[in-house]
Amino acid sequence: MCDNCPSENPTRRSLLKWGAAASVMSAVCAASAAGVPFVGTANAVDLSISTKRGVAYYVAQSGDTLKTIATRFLGNIDRWKELLALNPDLHGQDPRPGKKVRLPESPAGPNTRTFAPIPAGSKPQPFGPEGYRLTRFGDRAYGLQVGPAQSAFVVTDTGVVVLDAPAGHAASLPKAIASVTDKPVTHFVYSHSHSDHVGAANLFPNAIRVGHAETASILAAAKDPARPVPTVTFTDSHVIDAGGQKIVLSYPGPNHESGNIIIHVPQQRFAMLIDVAIPGWAPFRSFGSADSVPGVLRAHNELMKLDIDHFVGGHMHRYGTRKDIAESREFVFDMWTETQKAIAATPIAPFFGQVEAGNTWAAVELWYDAIAVKAEDPILRKWTGRLGGVDVWLRDNLKTMAVSARVDQPKDLPSG
Ligand SMILES: [Zn+2]
Fold it and tell me: Ligand 1: distance of its center to the CA of 260 in Å?
């Protein structure tokens, strides 16, 4: 009998619902099934969960606090207050090593959130033994997928133009290039400054580094040796004309980040704009961490003007086509329209009556909450199952949009 196996121990079964503990449990179960004593190091502390008449306890280890225990077992640091309430004998203090800390019977809270299934076209695809996937666009451009991050390069008659180099691509990118050409890297293009896309820019010290002037300014301030400042900058557009290939760089205005550019290789019918339209997926939180919400919408409009077959969005599991850009555009404009409608239908005044006098922040936050709740319903009904992760950050993204709608007031976008 494996006391840790969910099939044999009902308390373990309930613990398995606690995502943070699940992987540890399966390691314990596997060791036990093999007749091998489970000797862990960092994870061994999790073995200290014990049950008594259906109540779960954790034996505190050196360095544990209520917040670290809440993070590990309840999936949310804020739930340390529940532990405090369940363990009055702690008298408000963090547990000493060896102290048994009672855990909640039923882990209601953020860690029990469930999410809509990922649509078939948005799921990860297997990698080969090399651990990356190289995809050719046209006859000279390539997309490189490593984990959920993407970069690209173009092979010209005289060398290679590399488009982004995430830190996680540092080992794979040179190998992938070498697998198709022995030509040197002549140019490195920064899509924007963010480290998760150009954190290995220093792989190519001899290349001409090209980026938008805003990107150069941001990188100059960052002083990161892994992201050297571009040596060639521009403000509106720039064409790299190298070895018979034209790589057209254009700036659609501030969007995901100021300086984030559209990279278009017309001969290969290929384009790239990072962190704006993610093929098959809804935006990341805070509306893709947008510097300019209206700018992200406008950038979608600019992308739709390109006659292309291949699109790199920078993240998740696949590349896209114009259809994916159109779908992303429809999604973000739906969000914008529903946000505007919800703002118009939600007077702010009543929320001031729900909070302490003078706490304007709290009233406005309740108002934004109400707007997001109102706006999300039609979005969820229309889009769940069409894009991945629609439900993950929708409310957060709608609140980001609502703030933008109030302060940016763009007159070139639909008003709802
Ligand atoms: Zn970014």
Answer: 8
